[in-house]
Amino acid sequence: PAGSIPVTFTAWCNSHLRKAGTLIESIEEEFRNGLKLMLLLEVISGETLPKPDRGKMRFHKIANVNKALDFIASKGVKLVSIGAEEIVDGNLKMTLGMIWTIILRFAIQDISVEEMTAKEGLLLWCQRKTAPYKNVNVQNFHTSFKDGLAFCALIHRHRPDLLDYSQLSKDDPLHNLNLAFDIAEKHLDIPRMLDPDDLVNTPKADERAIMTYVSCYYHAFQGAQQVNRVTDEGSAKG
């Protein structure tokens, strides 16, 4: 349901915007003037966008949103039928579509595992990491994550100190989901982006929401591994 997507995308945007000392509460309202949208892109890309128009008129807002859209397009993204006017008017569907293209481009596109990239690479990463765990069989980004065990396995594989996987049961999905989300928030700096009740009660969860959240695990763990590898090499040389 679309219900879960605004919640997930808002939390994802905030996980980046907080680095610049700000947050959004309403995804369809707070990107309308383009200012926080431009800021979000600066935070996730590490690049500087053109100076925003500070005026309050509609044409200033459209100009700012267009600067953001131009920046996204400059990264090789085709923005099919996403227009600045609709974002400025608070069109939720269009705004979510735009945020999804940003998530795909900046959080998922560059994932590479063996020969697989982007979505397929992220799925392969999940399969590899959770392969040793009983009751986990990651085949997709909707039903495979419903009982929470895949999230718990991903955490345990990288940080076995944080939870005892052997104590978990497939029959208690709410416990598993809450456990994973709480640990990720407290110890991995990954905010809650999914609603456990929503996941359990929806026959097929929205894969955009799950991919967005799982990509945060990938970056948290892969990033940490790369940092560790560099420090290990440094200390080995010394």
Q: How is this structure best described in words?
A:
InterPro entries: Actinin_actin-bd_CS (IPR001589), CH_dom (IPR001715), CH_dom_sf (IPR036872). It comes from Petrolisthes cinctipes. GO terms for molecular function: actin binding. It is elongated and about 60 Å long. Strands 1-2 form a two-stranded antiparallel sheet. Helix 1 (4-17) packs parallel to helix 10 (207-237), helix 2 packs parallel to helix 3 (58-74) and helix 5 runs parallel beside helix 10. It is mainly α and 238 residues long. The chain has helices spanning 4-17, 35-45, 58-74, 84-88, 92-108, 118-130, 149-158, 173-187, 196-201, 207-237; strands at 112-113, 116-117.
Question: The biggest beta sheet, please?
Answer: 2 strands, antiparallel
Distance between the termini: 54 Å
Major sheet strand order: 1-2
Shape: elongated
SS summary, helix count: 10
Number of strands: 2
Percentage of residues in strands: under 5%
Structural class: mainly alpha
Low-confidence runs of at least 5 consecutive residues: none
Percent range of helical residues: 55-70%
Helix-strand pattern: HHHHHEEHHHHH
